[in-house]
Amino acid sequence: MADRQLSWGCCNADINEDDYIQCSKCCNVYHYGCLGINSNTRIQKNWNCLKCSKSKKCNNDETPIRSSTNNRSNTNVNDSNVTKRSYKRQALSSPTSPSSSTTITLDQVRSIVNEVFEKEMSSLLDNINKTITSTVSSYLKSIDSKIEDLQHSISFMSAQYDDMKKQIDTYSDIINKQKQDNESLQSTVASLTNKVNLMEQQARSNNIEIQCVPNQKMKI
C-alpha cells in the first residue's frame, strides 16, 4: 500500500496499490489508476500534474481541473485539484475604470465626428435619392399616360384627315369632270349659234324687198 504520509492529489483512497507518480512541481502524488495509465506507460522525468500544467497556460480560469477518470466509483476529488481565478473578469458592457481610460486627442474626435457626419450624410443622400426617384417616377407615369392619350387623339385626327382627304379628292374629280362637260357644252353652244346665224343669212338672201307701196286700207 502507498505511503499515507504522502500528499495525495487524487482520490487518497486506502487501496492496496504501490504504483503512483509524483508531480515535480507541487509534489502531490497520484495513483496510476486515477490518471488512467499503468506501470508500462512511458512517463517523462519532470512530470507535472494536470493542475500544474493548466496553471502554466492560464492562471485566471475558474474551470476546475479534474483528474482522469478511473474505475473506482463513489470517490471524491480533493479541493486542491480546483484552481480559481484570483480576480473577477470585467464585463464587456461595463464602463472602464478611470485609471484604465485613455485620453482622446483632438484628431481622434475629429475623425469620429467626420465618420458620424459621413454616415449621416450618406443616409440623408440615400433618403433624398429615394424621394427624388419616387417623385420623378410618379410624374413620369402621369406624363406617359398623357402622352398615350395624346397619341390616341393624334391617331383619331389622322384617320379623320385621311377620310376628309379622300372625300376632297373625290369632289375634285367630280368638279374637274363638270368643268370638262361645261367646256364641251360651251363649244357645242358656240357651234350651234354659228349655224343658226348662217341659216338666218341664207334665209334672208331669198327674200323680196317691195318698196313704194301705199299704206292705205283696202275698201270692200
From TrEMBL:
Which SUPFAM superfamilies did the record assign?
A: FYVE/PHD zinc finger (SSF57903)
From the UniProt record, list the coiled-coil ranges.
147-202
Compositionally biased residues, Low complexity: 66-83, 93-102
User: What residue stretches are annotated with the PHD-type domain?
Assistant: 10-52
What is the organism of origin for this protein?
A: Brenthis ino (lesser marbled fritillary)
* UniProt entry keywords in alphabetical sequence: Coiled coil, Metal-binding, Zinc, Zinc-finger
An example molecular function term from Gene Ontology annotations:
zinc ion binding
A Pfam family annotated for this chain is: PHD
What is this protein's name? Answer: PHD-type domain-containing protein
Q: Where is this region: Disordered?
A: 59-102
> Does the keyword rRNA-binding belong to this entry?
no
Domain of life, per UniProt, equals Eukaryota
